[in-house]
Design brief:
There is one protein chain. About 20% of the residues lie in helices and about 45% in strands. By secondary structure, it is of the alpha+beta class. It has one domain (about 5-105): Hypothetical Protein Aq_1857, Chain: A (Sandwich), CATH 2.60.300. It has a 6-stranded mixed beta sheet with strand order 4-5-2-3-9-8. The protein has a 3-stranded mixed beta sheet with strand order 1-6-7. The two termini are about 25 Å apart.
């Protein structure tokens, strides 16, 4: 899918988590109203719903609802394992500003 991409690092970590916790599940990436900038990212293990967009990458599955995908179009899901911690990160070209935590953004 051209609208949202999953990096190899993110796919590898998703596959590890799913194998250890809930085989057959996918990582749900959602955008919710809230956070310090208007929208925030949410990550959960979940089963795909009928209207979800399913992205399969390197053995991992990511699901996104259509409303969230409209706010993530052109973006990328990555995984970082740094000195300060390990986390999933979204690179979102639609985000006009973001807060310091990296999980909240605005599109204005």
């Amino acid at each position: 899918m051209d609208n949202f991409r999953v990096t190899e690092r993110a796919a590898a970590r998703i596959a590890e988590i799913v194998a250890a916790q809930q085989a057959g599940a996918a990582l749900r990436v959602a955008v919710l109203a809230g956070g310090c900038n208007g929208f925030q990212y949410k990550f959960d293990l979940d089963q795909p719903a009928a209207d979800d967009i399913v992205i399969e990458s390197n053995g991992a599955k990511v699901v996104i609802d259509p409303a969230s995908l409209s706010l993530l179009a052109g973006g990328e899901l990555d995984y970082a394992d740094e000195l300060m911690g390990a986390y999933f990160a979204v690179r979102n070209p639609q985000a006009k500003s973001a807060c310091g935590c990296g999980t909240s953004f605005s599109v204005d």
